[in-house]
């Protein structure tokens, strides 16, 4: 049997390869790293997590992301398997030791006899054979140009920012304390998964002033931020200085909100704002600053972040950064089997399709892999129903979204079809969200059963 080729061994490509081999079909996995480096990656491992170590909420009852986790587990997803093995305490979120996680994904694929690795950059889209393009937000310039030439579309891009990572032993725990928001978690370890840095109003105002005055990364002509093109940031990953420019209290009502937290050192005092740090590795030696993606220059980052109470002597394992993130106008170009309409031997998966987030990217890899394997075996596999998290995402990127205003999207209940029994009523989230996820689980199980 002819193998299916996958370009890119990130989260989507790795998951696609795994799903294809579950069907007994061989795979050739092409990865340009480490021979060709990117701005954000550090290794040549599969499924390297760059911006964060979190897959976000793991609540499959009240959250569309948690429901997506559930669907991937039900479909024997490799990414969720390895995330479970290398999970870190993070309250109600699913966070992992990112190095151990990516190494485990790599080893699982190398141990699979149906997977062949072929290192090196693919610079042009192939014309023959079955291919999945899962090159992610950092698609190489040469391949990006080949995609644009084939599709006739102009480049669509926004800028994605990376949060800094702090050495735990440089955090002043006489000022900070450990607590997950609202004490979420089933264990003490989960309930104390975050380190919290409290701010008074004076601290906060000084921080905002320094943030706004700090030197920022400059963009080249024709890139985001240069006239007449306004910066097309994705709202789910805004740099903190962009949020601060939208209003002095924006951060205090966003990633620095003080709700659900009590200062263990001064329980009678309510912080004006709180900066949270989330554990980034199993040893607990590294913590990332939650929601602190930034485009400040490195020297400015150190000066500004050390203004945060408890981080005055902070040592940084990695400072923040910003990079270009390229994606297709999928509503115009991609069908609901994730195939390029004009060249159906080419499938796309992951963030390049216009989904946003690690788990959404991996989920599109899962679907692309299953669909490609089914096609190789002479079958047609439709997408899951739009009532599921996977199906809602596919529906959105392949026609549910307006192509004129298309931008990357996280999974959310707003993409789900309304519940008929709740139309016209005043049911709140407490009733509506479990009804959504109950329906999604039933419909996803039925979709899976149809493939046996």
TrEMBL record:
FAD binds at residues 8-13. Keywords: Cytoplasm, FAD, Flavoprotein, Methyltransferase, NAD, NADP, Transferase, tRNA processing. It catalyses: uridine(54) in tRNA + (6R)-5,10-methylene-5,6,7,8-tetrahydrofolate + NADH + H(+) = 5-methyluridine(54) in tRNA + (6S)-5,6,7,8-tetrahydrofolate + NAD(+); uridine(54) in tRNA + (6R)-5,10-methylene-5,6,7,8-tetrahydrofolate + NADPH + H(+) = 5-methyluridine(54) in tRNA + (6S)-5,6,7,8-tetrahydrofolate + NADP(+). One of its GO terms (biological process) is tRNA methylation. Its EC number is 2.1.1.74. Its cofactor is FAD. Residues 4-379 form the MnmG N-terminal domain. The keyword NADP applies. One of its GO terms (cellular component) is cytosol. GO terms for molecular function: flavin adenine dinucleotide binding; tRNA (uracil(54)-C5)-methyltransferase activity, 5,10-methylenetetrahydrofolate-dependent. It is found in: Cytoplasm. It holds the Pfam family GIDA. Signal peptide: none annotated. Catalyzes the folate-dependent formation of 5-methyl-uridine at position 54 (M-5-U54) in all tRNAs. NAD-binding protein involved in the addition of a carboxymethylaminomethyl (cmnm) group at the wobble position (U34) of certain tRNAs, forming tRNA-cmnm(5)s(2)U34. PANTHER family: GLUCOSE INHIBITED DIVISION PROTEIN A, METHYLENETETRAHYDROFOLATE--TRNA-(URACIL-5-)-METHYLTRANSFERASE TRMFO. Belongs to the MnmG family. TrmFO subfamily. This is Methylenetetrahydrofolate--tRNA-(uracil-5-)-methyltransferase TrmFO.
């Amino acid at each position: 049997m002819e193998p299916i080729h996958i370009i890119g061994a990130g989260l989507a490509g790795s998951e696609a390869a795994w799903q294809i081999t579950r069907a007994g079909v061989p795979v050739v996995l092409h990865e340009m790293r480490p021979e060709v480096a990117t701005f954000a990656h550090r290794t040549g491992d599969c499924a390297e997590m760059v911006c964060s170590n979190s897959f976000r909420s793991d609540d499959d009852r009240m959250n569309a992301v948690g429901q997506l986790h559930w669907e991937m587990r039900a479909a024997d997803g490799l990414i969720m398997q390895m995330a479970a093995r290398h999970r870190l305490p993070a309250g109600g979120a699913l966070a992992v030791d990112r190095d151990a996680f990516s190494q485990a994904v790599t080893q699982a694929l190398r141990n699979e006899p149906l997977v062949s690795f072929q290192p090196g950059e693919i610079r042009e889209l192939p014309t023959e054979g079955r291919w999945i393009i899962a090159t992610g937000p950092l698609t190489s310039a040469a391949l990006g140009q080949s995609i644009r030439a084939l599709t006739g579309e102009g480049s669509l891009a926004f800028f994605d920012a990376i949060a800094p990572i702090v050495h735990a032993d440089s955090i002043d725990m006489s000022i900070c304390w450990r607590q997950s928001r609202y004490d979420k978690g089933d264990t003490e370890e989960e309930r104390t998964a975050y380190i919290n840095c409290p701010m008074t109003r004076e601290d906060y105002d000084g921080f905002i002033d320094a943030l706004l005055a700090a030197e920022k990364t400059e963009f080249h002509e024709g890139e985001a931020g240069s006239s007449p093109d306004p910066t097309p940031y994705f709202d789910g990953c805004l740099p903190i200085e962009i949020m601060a420019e939208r209003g002095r209290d924006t951060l205090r009502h966003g990633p620095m909100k003080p709700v659900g937290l009590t200062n263990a050192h001064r329980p009678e005092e309510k912080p004006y704002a709180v900066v949270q740090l989330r554990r980034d590795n199993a040893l607990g030696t590294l913590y990332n600053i939650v929601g602190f993606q930034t485009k400040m220059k490195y020297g400015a980052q150190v000066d500004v972040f050390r203004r945060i109470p408890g981080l005055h002597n902070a040592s940084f394992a990695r400072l923040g950064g910003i990079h270009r993130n390229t994606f297709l106008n999928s509503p115009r170009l991609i069908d609901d089997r994730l195939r390029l309409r004009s060249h159906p031997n080419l499938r796309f998966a992951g963030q390049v399709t216009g989904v946003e987030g690690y788990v959404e990217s991996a989920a599109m890899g899962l679907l692309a892999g299953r669909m490609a394997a089914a096609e190789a075996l002479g079958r047609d596999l439709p997408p899951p129903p739009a009532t599921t998290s996977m199906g809602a995402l596919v529906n959105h990127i392949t026609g549910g979204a307006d192509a004129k205003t298309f931008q990357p999207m996280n999974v959310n209940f707003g993409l789900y079809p309304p519940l008929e029994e709740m139309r016209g009523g005043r049911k709140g989230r407490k009733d509506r969200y479990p009804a959504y996820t109950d329906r999604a689980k039933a419909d996803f199980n039925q979709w899976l059963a149809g493939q046996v």
